[in-house]
TrEMBL record:
Domain DUF4142: 70-202
Listed name of the protein: DUF4142 domain-containing protein
Organism (species): Actinomadura chokoriensis
Region (Disordered): 129-148, 210-246
Biased composition (Pro residues): 214-227
Length: 246
């Protein structure tokens, strides 16, 4: 998923719902929804301040330990995902061609609402501003999905969401493994199973193929492949190896 641009205070839920619904229906041109570097409480654009980029890369002290750039980034990304995926999933409950897609996307919408609530609670405790609108890329995905019909609608919605979910899942795992902030660690630990559940629901629709998955992680020293036509001997139990074979 593309790196979101941080925004300021979130708008009221009703306003956000109206904006997302309008984007999905094509009533709001994409150019009218460009996110800005920061945003005032009333939604007015605020010019970026000098040093904002350096501040974004800094680590700050909190009651739960140091809060670094990756910690803040994953919380923002979870919020950013909710801003377009909830709207798409709710629309798919009505428009998807297949009942299985409608059921899966309906469950994802409900799960994302719970995840967004958790995300906003953690952000409030950390005094972390969250975005209040989809990124330009996300807006283009929403328009792309809305412009489809039949199985093409189902396939496009599932493909876009599965790609985004896979990237988010990987970042949650990396932050869960390495964060020094106990609150962020707890958040990632709770969020990752919810994203995993959503990926499973998307895969169960039958529309997830290899071309919609993110690239696998790079491995510096991968094990050699098996010889063609050959078969590797089963490995002994680790306890047997550790005990010297006795």
């Amino acid at each position: 998923m593309p790196r979101p641009r941080p925004a300021g205070a979130a708008a009221a839920p009703a306003l956000t719902a109206v904006l997302l619904g309008a984007v999905l229906l094509g009533a709001v041109p994409l150019s009218a929804c460009q996110p800005v570097g920061r945003q005032a409480a009333d939604g007015a654009a605020v010019a970026p301040k000098a040093g904002d980029e350096a501040a974004a890369q800094s680590t700050v002290t909190t009651d739960w330990g140091p809060l670094g750039p990756a910690d803040r980034d994953v919380i923002v990304r979870v919020r950013q995902a909710a801003l377009w995926e909830i709207a798409v999933a709710r629309q798919a409950q009505r428009r998807a061609a297949r009942p299985a897609t409608r059921r899966a996307l309906g469950a994802i919408a409900r799960g994302h609402v719970r995840l967004d609530l958790l995300d906003r609670q953690v952000a409030a405790r950390l005094n972390l501003p969250l975005p209040d609108r989809p990124t330009p890329d996300q807006q283009s995905w929403m328009s792309e999905i809305t412009g489809k019909s039949g199985n093409d609608y189902d396939r496009t919605a599932v493909a876009r969401m599965r790609m985004a979910q896979g990237l988010l899942y990987a970042e949650l795992g990396a932050v869960r493994a390495g964060t020094r902030n106990t609150l962020v660690r707890e958040f990632a630990q709770r969020a990752q199973p919810l994203v995993d559940d959503q990926m499973g629901r998307l895969e169960a629709t039958g529309f997830v193929t290899g071309d919609v998955l993110p690239d696998p992680p790079e491995v510096t020293e991968p094990p050699p492949p098996a010889q063609p036509g050959g078969r590797a001997a089963p490995a002994p139990a680790a306890t047997t190896v550790l005990s010297g074979g006795g």
